[in-house]
Request: fold
Amino acid sequence: MITTAYKVQGMTCDHCVRAVTSELSALVGVSEVSVNLNAGAVSDVTVTSSVALDDAAVRSAVDEAGYELVV
Reply:
């Protein structure tokens, strides 16, 4: 298993967490998504997957949820 940490900006509530979790969970190989919500600031998102994730796919999933992946 591969665990990768990301920073996501713009999440403010549990609905935001569910949206990001849903989009990232739909990526091939993802088995778990954990979000440490920091409302109004940058939140930590940890993704566990069976394969290395493509950064563009992760960015697209976060964008689709309505938030921004911070580099």
About this structure: The longest strand covers residues 2-9. The mean pLDDT is 94. DSSP finds two helices and four strands in the chain. The first helix runs from residue 14 to 25.
